[in-house]
Specification:
Helix content is 29%, strand content 25%. The protein is of the alpha+beta class and 499 residues long. Among the domains are: 181 residues, tricorn interacting facor f3 domain (Immunoglobulin-like, Sandwich); 132 residues, Neutral Protease Domain 2 (Neutral Protease, domain 2, Orthogonal Bundle), CATH 1.10.390.10. It has an 8-stranded mixed beta sheet with strand order 6-5-9-3-2-12-15-14, with no helix packed on it. The chain has a 3-stranded antiparallel beta sheet with strand order 4-8-7, with no helix packed on it. Helix 3 crosses helix 5 and helix 5 packs across helix 6. The chain is globular and about 65 Å long. Bound molecules: zinc ion (ZN). GO terms for molecular function: alanyl aminopeptidase activity; metallopeptidase activity; zinc ion binding. Its cofactor is Zn(2+). Its EC number is 3.4.11.2. This is Aminopeptidase N.
Length: 499
């Protein structure tokens, strides 16, 4: 994610370290439910993420989601939906919790049997006819509505655009759209089938697998991902759109989805994508997915978002005159870089967010240096000056403060953007360009299609430097004060504001 500045260039982000205590408590709770002979009340569960403790659910691992949406042509009306989940049970459970908080549930089946369900907190709790155990497969079908009108205090999920809908689920809003295990540590394959009235086009993550025209003019559009994906990265666009196709490096299918009326105005930006992919491939290796493209939405989201294979951009970013060309280019590269850092290699917990945003900001800034002569060193010296202030406001990069009440995307603070790119700059200063470049390539290769933690990054960096960098990273990732910058002993931080 990247917040769109409303005046000049500036942006935020945040981070933190994984803690398992809460996960263990959650696991113990579910074991206790099984042990108790009297039925215990259904309760919302979580896997104990340090920033979002109630997100995700213990006891199973989702292999795939198969989601049908029927859109009725009005983006203020609920869609009809069927979400099918194929999961493997990993712990004994008498109830199965899903995250789902913003739609009406009509029926639930587990392994073809009608199943009792109730909503509590932000969970949908299912009670199968018999307890389930490790190794069993769960095939869950939920018939429900999916409401595009945000509840009070809710952020994210469906985004209502000028001509339909798009999705923005980061960090914790996929379960406002469909029932799921809403945590990036449980990645899965996705199939989407979207039925929309005549004149509208639907596009989702991955590649098309079919299109069916119905009597009366509606069409069902089907897409499937070729790689596992986190729920927060799901994208479904419905609108008066045109899909533009071009070729990227080695024939990679590049497809952009734009409001049909804007296709000519946007072309000067869209045609840059293949070159940007080529630039990123030179830096870190092969693009990790089956396709890429830009989704331009007529909406005031206030941010851009790296939804997998199809990044979401506000139309205004490309059409307002106050953004310089180099800046828009670098934002495009920011979301593209996330396809490697954040999407292919996903955070294990939300406190690993600095790995997403620090890297995306790093390549954003590096692109601006190489293509627009805007020295990275200058930007990093500036970040260094503000770093203590950012740490005071948002916590250290790998131990960020939780979201402000009612403002879940407030974890996207400066300390996880330039404040964390600064950590990568310090690392490159410390271990040298060659070891740093090698580390970056190995990172996206080793953890491709998976999850990784801050500790994994520290370990791989130490291997590449052929020495223990634990002390270096402790100070840079967990310190409330910014350590001295290797090679720039003259750099100074300003005192945190208000002190
Ligand atoms: Zn970002």
């Amino acid at each position: 994610m990247l917040l769109t500045p409303r005046t000049t260039a500036a942006r935020p982000k945040a981070l933190r370290t994984p803690r398992l205590a809460a996960a263990l408590i959650a696991a113990t709770t579910s074991a206790a439910l099984v042990a108790a002979s009297a039925p215990s009340p259904a309760a919302p569960l979580g896997i104990g993420d340090p920033l979002f403790p109630h997100l995700g659910n213990p006891g199973y691992d989702v292999a795939s989601y198969d989601i049908d949406f029927t859109y009725h042509g009005d983006n203020r009306k609920p869609l009809d939906a069927v979400t099918k989940i194929d999961a493997l049970v990993t712990a004994p459970m008498e109830r199965v919790n899903l995250d789902f908080a913003h739609g009406k549930v009509r029926s639930v089946e587990v392994n073809d049997e009608a199943t009792r369900f109730e909503s509590t907190g932000e969970d949908l709790v299912l009670t199968p006819s018999a307890p389930v155990g490790p190794g069993e497969r769960l095939r869950i079908t939920v018939r429900h509505t999916s409401d595009p009108v945000s509840a009070k205090d809710a952020q994210g999920g469906w985004v209502r655009t000028g001509d339909g809908l798009a999705m923005a689920n980061q960090a914790d809003a996929a379960h406002l759209v469909f029932p799921c295990n809403d945590h990036p540590s449980d990645k899965a394959e996705f199939t989407f089938r979207v039925t929309a009235p005549e004149g509208l086009t639907a596009v989702a993550n991955g590649l098309p697998i079919g299109r069916t025209r119905h009597v009366g003019g509606a069409t069902t559009w089907a897409y499937r991902t070729h790689h596992p994906m986190a729920t927060e990265l799901a994208q479904v666009s419905i609108g008066r759109s045109t899909v533009l196709h071009r070729k990227g490096p080695d024939g990679l299918p590049v497809r952009d989805v734009v409001p049909t009326k804007d296709r000519k105005v946007l072309e000067r930006w869209l045609k840059k994508t293949p070159g940007q992919i080529e630039w990123m491939e030179q830096k870190v290796g092969r693009y990790p997915f089956e396709t890429y493209g830009v989704l331009v939405a007529e909406a005031r989201t206030g941010f851009e978002l790296e939804t997998q294979t199809l990044s979401l951009f506000e139309r205004d970013l490309f059409t307002r005159p106050e953004y310089p060309e180099w800046y828009v280019d670098s934002i495009m590269v920011h979301e593209l870089a996330h396809q490697w850092f954040g999407d292919s290699v996903s955070p294990r917990s939300w406190s690993d967010l600095w790995l997403n945003e620090g890297h995306a900001t790093w390549y954003e800034a590096l692109f601006a240096e190489e293509k627009a002569k805007r020295p990275l060193k200058d930007r990093m010296r500036q970040a260094y000056r503000q770093s203590d202030t950012w740490r005071a406001a948002g916590g250290p990069p790998a131990k960020p403060k939780g979201p402000a009440p009612g403002k879940k995307i407030s974890i996207f603070r400066p300390v996880v953007y330039d404040g964390s790119a600064l950590v990568l700059y310090a690392l490159r200063q410390e271990i040298g360009h060659r070891a740093f470049d090698r580390l970056e390539r190995q990172w996206v290769d080793l953890y491709r299609d998976g999850n990784a933690t801050t500790a994994d990054f520290v370990r791989l960096a130490s291997q590449n430097a052929a020495r223990d960098l634990g002390g270096f990273f402790d100070a840079w990732l967990y310190g409330t004060k910014t350590p001295p910058m290797p090679g720039h002993p003259d750099w100074r931080t300003a005192a945190p504001e208000g002190k």
